[in-house]
Design brief:
Largest sheet of chain A: 7 strands, mixed
Distance between the termini of chain A: 61 Å
Number of strands of chain C: 5
Oligomer: heterotrimer
Order of helices and strands of chain C: EEHEEHEHHHH
Number of helices of chain C: 6
Strand order of the largest sheet of chain A: 3-5-1-12-9-10-11
Structural class of chain A: alpha+beta
Distance between the termini of chain C: 56 Å
Helix content of chain A: 25-40%
Number of helices of chain A: 19
Strand content of chain A: 25-35%
Chains: A alpha+beta (745), B alpha+beta (290), C alpha+beta (164)
């Protein structure tokens, strides 16, 4: 034990960020670079009857104008077999619209010019004739509407069924059934840096480099290789500084293909920097789904069973994350409770709006809102305190590992929660919040005329998804080490965490370890930075690679691995020593056939200004079992940041559309992300229940957890404050006022 | 989101600016702080052929007493209004409104004249100007005219200012003795455009009753509106919690806001009731402080 | 019409950036943000280009402005300070941001630093409420902004201490 793991090691990557010298994609410059501007659909649904690019092509500075006719007839593929079905593959998106446009913002043509100002001027000159079709602008209308993809013959992407136990019997035996329809609204990640790409072909090696990669660089490389019809080895996807990802950045988008295609065709560097107006229609949206949930319970509040019928929106196409919009909620709605039985049917549908992908805590944030809201309604019905109702029904530690076996025909064979002490963790949250005192305080404040309420929510987070990651630990002569992993840095501080893991294993200083995940060339295969998997999967791979280096050194020295010391460019054991270069490099692969399910919760204290409907979150506490916190300060930053986003989603942020499918939230004035004036200081409770030995590092993941229960806790708190039921978000002042008005207040 | 092309000239004097804009035709515009114009250019919602930069013209950046009233130059920045020691008592609403325009970096550049001429229905200063009976001084190469606040705004983003006219000065007439004014607004998030706003002013009558009651509302229709019924209900009456509540209700009932996905009409009425109530309550409670 | 610069022509523009005079030629429509970035000062970032996010905040004559809402030609005659400059408030601010977990991805960080530098220079005794209000001028998606508020308050204390 070096004390490096579990310490708040300083994040060295801060220095260039604070200096302003860090380079993001838009900051890259290449001699002779040209700039792409996309011409996007102004309408939600139309047949393209003609495109005239002649005026644009003749505009000063224009190098090329492309339409779908100039491209191979390709579609952006779904990135993992786990997310893919033959049905979903009927709805994939071409890089430029072919014959039909299916959402406002869909790329129709690409204009390339020597300057971004000129490219934007020329893009306005592309003349497109559109024959408008009726748009499908809501989940509810999708199934009955004319197919948006006629060849598919339906607007249903597919249905994910899950069935555990005898649901009908459990409902028949129930004393109480509560039932409600819930809606989670469309909102999304909106990182501060828009997407940006720069593609360049090396004339000597004929290799293509795509700068601006993030999250899943190897998947993007594979997808581009397939669409461009070239070997993946000819493509290098490289990462520079990344201004936030949260799920949406780094997937394969139409622009990734177009920039790469144009660089190969024009043989000069091609750059595209998304602007904010584009970002709001082009980058993945998320979250929109509706649930009809019913819960069966005994009179004293013991949970028996539930049925959930969910419909999740995909938007105009199925994007690279395939069926995740319906699969993830289905897998997570059971949550941390000991159900005897449940049945889920989650259906994905196509509508004429921007396609969706994952946003921090995908699926689980939505279903935690749905389930935890209905549990509060049940608690009111049975007269139980919401915390007590939950505590009574949590899966007990003695039941771990716990499995919900699935009936035949279910989409997954079972759900196994491997470790944790949920009741103890819930108590840690309640203790940190001072729950009983808080209940008394709220009662007093209400007596004084204030409108205040407390909300609690618990969840299970699916994270640390495999299948595997690889790592290399390469020593250099100067005494340093470079860790190569294939995930990525989106601003979380992952580079510090990997350095800590390797420094601890080698017993060297953290500052002697450099981390490189910038480049697909340095690691042959990897899956990327999503699903809170960087530390638990790639971190374990880095740990095993460091151990491998130690073992190799031990073998070379004829010593016991534990006795090997690294330092000053040497490895030593006993009296013997060797230059570290003679040892080679450490390599490992960490396989994770099953995801990790970890437990957490959130508690929120809100006040409502009855006159204006404004909700203020006065306190917000998040708790999560991270297994093992490699760097607690960074873990807290992740949890607090995610919770801040969750409060924004619960109260302010919404991607609205009108009845014609026109997006209404395309500025930072209309899409309202919270600032320091709208947020409390987030309180964080880090729980560490070490998982089994199959995870040598012991980490369960932390990137998304602060999000998952936050909207649910805020919604429960507002419902508690108002004494009214909340079934949809966000709780904007307008919506809160309308709840109060409808109640005659 | 790059601005579309335009020709540009920086004027050294007001006369030169007026001449430049006059020669450039109907699609020429003045550029002062640019805080309203630049976002429109970024979204390409405005396409002026020519911009005449008046941002550094001398003499239009003063806040001065004038015959018992006040004149404010068209180029006075919001950030300067925000901390002007002159803006108290009858003029306090101007300071309070300026302090709530966007965020500090916007206020450092944005100008009083620019905000008025832009005529955003959600903007703060047009509401205060309406409540305080402001008079706008418009200059062009052919002469000068003055327009009262009640006549300036003709619709969303529309005024009677005709190119090549420039709004050079905002005048506030001498107030009745003891007039005090306040400004309240509601935004969904700090620094956002107001979903509703209210400026209110009263002067004490000899018997302590309210006189010269002015209530103006913003963000509830195409232009700032006076809440005449609410004003009339208070004129000559004492400000009490009951009269204030009744006036707030009258103000709310008197507006006819349009449909808006972010703030539906019933919500705007709720906000107006709350804001007018708060503004009048402050005037009631604060006596002649401020 | 010689006072006019045509839309496709460029204006000679004397910019005083970080204490050095820079003679550049820019088309009338080029924003100050783009002009600075074209000049290699890429620490001034574009997060929205419509004046809301504040990633492009620089100091103009000592006060914070959105460089995306300012044309380069408008800036001629003003002192411009960017994150690459040596604003004296930056040392304390950088340390407070670093120690207080006030940055994650770092994209918004220069804008916040310049915003705070302008505030602390102009209003060294700003109340916590005033600091909160001004810090809310910019958007930070990673931290939400509260850690930034705390860091600015910490830097304010440090600067007040060193001024005594």
């Amino acid at each position: 034990m070096t004390g490096i793991i579990g310490g708040d090691v300083h994040r060295d990557a801060n220095a260039p960020l604070l200096a302003g010298t860090a380079q993001y994609a838009a900051d890259l410059r290449r001699d002779g670079e040209v700039h792409v501007r996309l011409v996007r659909s102004p309408v939600a649904h139309a047949r393209i009857t003609g495109i005239d690019v002649s005026e644009a092509a003749a505009h000063p500075g224009v190098v090329a104008v492309l339409t779908a006719d100039d491209l191979p007839d390709v579609r952006i593929p779904i990135r993992l077999p786990l997310f893919e079905t033959p049905e979903a593959n009927r709805f994939l998106q071409p890089p430029l619209a072919r014959e039909v446009v299916r959402y406002v913002g869909e790329p129709i043509a690409a204009v390339v010019a020597t300057d971004p100002y000129l490219a934007e001027d020329a893009a306005e000159l592309v003349d497109i004739d559109l024959d408008e079709l009726p748009p499908v602008t809501g989940i509810a209308d999708a199934e009955a509407a004319e197919p948006i993809h006629p060849a598919a013959g339906t607007n249903v992407v597919g249905t994910v069924p899950l069935r555990h136990g005898d649901v009908d019997a459990a409902f028949a035996a129930a004393d109480i059934v509560v039932r409600e329809r819930f809606r989670m609204h469309r909102h999304t990640a909106v990182p501060m840096e828009t997407r940006g790409l720069l593609a360049e072909v090396d004339e000597i090696t004929d290799r293509l480099t795509l700068w601006g990669g993030a999250k899943v660089k190897h998947s993007v490389r594979q997808a581009l290789a397939g669409m461009l019809g070239i070997d993946a080895e000819r493509i290098r996807v490289a990462e520079v500084n990344v201004g936030g990802g949260f799920g949406v950045r780094g997937e394969t988008y139409p622009e990734d293909f177009l920039v790469a295609f144009l660089a190969l065709r024009l043989r000069r560097p091609v750059k595209w920097v998304e602007d904010r107006a584009e970002h709001f229609v082009a980058t993945n949206h998320a979250r929109e789904q509706e649930h009809e949930l019913e819960i069966a319970a005994t009179a004293d509040g013991r949970l028996l069973a539930f049925r959930d019928r969910a419909v999740a929106d995909h938007g105009g196409y199925v994007r690279s994350q395939g069926i995740l919009p319906e699969l993830l909620p289905a897998q997570q709605i059971a949550g941390p409770y000991r159900w005897e039985a449940f049945a889920v049917e989650a259906t994905g549908v196509i509508t004429n709006r921007t396609p969706v992908g994952t946003y921090r805590g995908p699926g689980m944030t939505e279903v935690t809102f749905v389930r935890e809201r209905l549990l509060d309604m049940l608690a009111a019905r049975v007269g139980a305190d919401p915390a007590e109702l939950r505590r009574r029904n949590l899966i007990p530690p003695e039941a771990m590992p716990f499995t919900f076996a699935m009936d035949e025909g279910s989409a997954v064979p079972g759900l196994t929660y491997e470790s944790g002490d949920y009741p103890a963790a819930l108590d840690a949250l309640l203790d940190a919040a001072g729950y009983d005192g808080l209940r008394r305080e709220v009662a007093e404040r209400r007596a004084g005329g204030e409108c205040a309420g407390i909300g609690l929510a618990a969840y299970i987070e699916i994270g640390a998804i495999g299948p595997f990651e690889e790592a290399r630990v390469v020593p250099d002569r100067a005494g340093g080490f470079t860790v190569h992993v294939a995930t990525g840095s989106l601003g979380q501080g992952a580079e510090t965490v990997f350095a800590q893991i390797v420094a601890d294993a080698l017993r060297v200083r953290v500052e002697d370890v450099r981390v490189d995940f910038s480049d697909t060339d340095e690691i042959p295969m990897g899956f990327g930075a999503f699903a809170s998997r960087s530390t638990p999967i790639a971190g374990n791979a880095a740990l095993l690679a460091a151990r491998d280096l130690r073992a190799k050194a031990a073998e070379a020295l004829g010593a016991d691995p534990d006795d090997v010391e690294f330092g000053a460019g040497l490895v030593r054991a006993g009296g013997a020593s060797l230059p570290v270069g003679k040892v080679g490099e450490g390599r490992a692969r960490f396989d994770k056939p099953h995801p990790t399910f970890s437990f957490g919760g959130a508690l929120s204290l809100v006040t409502v200004d009855r006159a204006t409907g404004r909700v203020r979150v006065q306190r917000h506490v998040v708790m999560h079992d991270v297994g093992r916190a490699v760097n607690p300060a960074l873990v807290r930053g992740q949890l607090a940041g995610a919770a801040s986003q969750g409060i924004g989603g619960a109260l302010l942020e919404e991607l609205l559309y009108d009845a014609q499918g026109q997006p209404l939230s395309t500025t930072f004035g209309d899409y309202r992300m919270p600032t320091a004036s709208e947020l409390p200081e987030i309180e964080v409770v880090v729980v560490e229940h070490r998982p089994p030995e199959s995870n040598p590092l012991g980490a369960k993941g932390a990137g998304e957890a602060g999000m998952v229960a936050t909207p649910a806790a805020v919604a429960n708190a507002v419902a508690d404050a108002l004494g009214l039921e909340v079934t949809r978000l966000p709780l904007t002042p307008d919506r809160v006022r309308s709840l109060l008005r409808d109640a005659g207040r | 989101m790059k601005p579309p092309p335009f020709a540009y000239a920086r004027a050294a004097t007001l006369d030169e600016a007026l001449a430049l804009v006059a020669e450039a035709g109907d699609e020429a515009k003045f550029l002062a702080g640019g805080q309203s114009l630049l976002p429109l250019l970024a979204y390409r919602l405005a396409r002026p052929t020519h911009l005449v930069d008046i941002g550094r013209l001398p003499g239009l950046d003063r806040i001065e007493p004038a015959g018992g009233g006040l004149t404010i130059g068209g180029l006075v920045r919001h950030a300067d209004l925000e901390r002007s020691a002159a803006l108290t008592g009858p003029w306090r609403a101007i300071r309070e409104a300026a302090a709530q325009i966007g965020h500090l970096p916007i206020r450092v550049r944005g100008t009083f004249g620019g905000s008025i001429a832009h005529a955003d229905p959600a903007a703060e200063l047009p509401v205060v100007a309406t409540a305080l009976d402001a008079v706008f001084v418009l200059r062009s190469v052919t002469g000068t005219r003055t327009v009262p606040a009640a006549d300036l705004f003709t619709g969303p983003f529309m005024t009677v200012i005709e190119p090549p006219e420039a709004l050079v000065e905002i005048g506030f007439p001498a107030p009745p003795p003891g007039l005090r004014s306040v400004f309240e607004e509601f935004t969904a998030r700090s620094g956002d455009f107001a979903l509703a706003s209210a400026a209110a002013a009263v002067a004490p009558g000899d018997d302590g009753s309210a006189r010269h009651v002015r209530i103006a509302l913003g963000s509830v229709g195409p232009v700032p509106v006076r809440a005449h019924d609410a004003e009339a209900s208070l004129e000559g009456a004492a400000l009490t919690p009951d009269t204030v509540a009744a006036a707030a209700r009258l103000a709310a009932d008197g507006i006819e806001p349009g449909e808006d996905a972010f703030a539906r009409p019933a919500f705007r009425r709720d906000l107006v009731a709350a804001l007018v109530g708060r503004a009048l309550t402050r005037l009631m409670n604060e006596g002649d402080r401020g | 019409m010689e006072r006019w610069t045509a839309e496709d022509d460029t204006v000679p523009c004397e910019l005083d950036v970080n204490g050095g005079a820079e003679a550049v030629r820019v088309p009338p429509r080029r924003t100050l943000a783009d002009a600075l970035r074209d000049h290699g000062l890429t620490g001034t970032r574009l997060g929205c280009e419509h004046g809301v996010c504040g990633a492009c905040t620089v100091l103009m004559d000592g006060r914070p402005v959105r460089s995306c809402l300012t044309l380069a030609v408008q800036a001629a005659g003003s002192r411009i300070e960017t994150i690459e400059g040596a604003a004296p408030e930056l040392r304390a601010l950088r340390r407070a941001f670093d120690e207080g977990g006030a940055l994650q991805c770092g994209f918004c960080t220069p804008g916040f630093l310049m915003l705070a530098a302008g505030l602390l220079r102009d209003e060294p005794g700003a109340s916590p409420e005033r600091v909160r209000e001004v810090v809310s001028s910019n958007l930070c998606r990673c931290t939400g902004g509260v850690p930034i508020l705390k860091a600015v308050l910490a830097a304010q204390r440090e600067l007040a201490g060193s001024a005594r």
